[in-house]
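Problem: given the chain below (304 residues), write out its structure.
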Amino acid sequence: MRFAYLPIFIFPAFRFLGSFEFDELTRAPYPENELKKLFQLCLDQAVNGAKEMGLKPDHFIFILHSRIFDYQLGVHFKELNNTTVEMLLNQFEKVDQSNMAKDRDSAITKDFQIDVTAIQTKGTKSNNNLKRKHPGAARPSKRDQPLHFKVNPQGLHQINNNDDNYCLFLAIVMVVAQNVLPQQRFSEFRRDEEMQMDEVRRIFNATGLDPQEEDYDIEECGDIIQRDFLDRFYPGKFRIFAFDNAGRFKPFFKSEVEDYNTALPIFYWCEDRHYDGIRSMRLLYDKSSRFNYCFSVKKYLFIF
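Solution.
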């Protein structure tokens, strides 16, 4: 049995790679129990290695390589619980039985490798800068040149915060309020700056973000706000989408959440480094309402 500890450079991660020889496994009265112990060992090694690096894994990739299999067995999951090992064993048995139906030996009769990677994606930026601070992007190719358009102010909740740098948070709380308050209460909320700042303070208290920073960007704060504020106080409701005036007609940032029923769109002005809330996607990019972004299919629809 050989072990290797290899770094992953896209997100902070710990990777465990083990090579196993199991002549004795075929002689065990219950080979499946030995396999479960082995799978648990590999998962524990990956989790412990990640903890030693100060990581909090939220994604796991389990891969079993065997020369007998036509394809490697790969399983991706987001949490470890008391059913994980049983699930991995079931997946292995399905592939192994399908393989033996082709008149081949079981994978446990040959050497094989188990590769487990524990990855932290939330609250971090990738080491390859896949998520770059906004603004600051590579020069677009000719086939990806910006489209020219005018932003319709009627599609925005314009944030006027001349004396602070909380426009990102104000934009978020404005769109939240639009979706959770009755119309009369929302009209009062829009006019009451102290009510708005109360909600901003709730975000800081829930997330632990430093209210004294010089500036804030959605790439660094978005997933933290999603996880520690939106998912806590509005579970299953919101997902953040951030658009800008660079002309791509698609969000440059989407928060990491699986289930939601309401988009929370905000808008970033690249030149002014300022965020506004988006009141209506249909009105945002064109006064004639010809564009409407469909969040479910992730593209713009043209409405005539």
